[in-house]
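Side project, low priority. Logging it here so it doesn't get lost.
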Amino acid sequence: MSEATENIKAFGQPIVVTRTAPGAYGDDGEWHPSVDPPVVTTTKASIQPSSPKERELLPAAVQTEEIMKVFATFALRTDDEESSTVADTFAFKGRQYKIIAANRYEMGTPLDHTKAFAALIKESA
């Protein structure tokens, strides 16, 4: 088995991932969020602090944020303007995180996994 899969099995814990359906532009030319309710899925993940080296590889705008590294058996997704995809979010230790980068490794069951980075969602003032 892959190191990531072993890591998820050994250290993973259940997390609840919220996936929001993409919105669309209406006939009025305005953007409208989806009216579909979010899909909530429980999956197993290993969540670890990211290293300074890993943060350097992320966009400069998020390098100073609290970033967690996530290994999951579930295919996590990021924002994608082209496909109108909305990034997945999840709760960890009472705080909400948003997936900002994700790579899916598909090698055949049971080795498939996602390595992702998630930023803390700051509460609005």
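Brief comment: The chain has one domain: 3-21+35-120.
Revisit when time allows.
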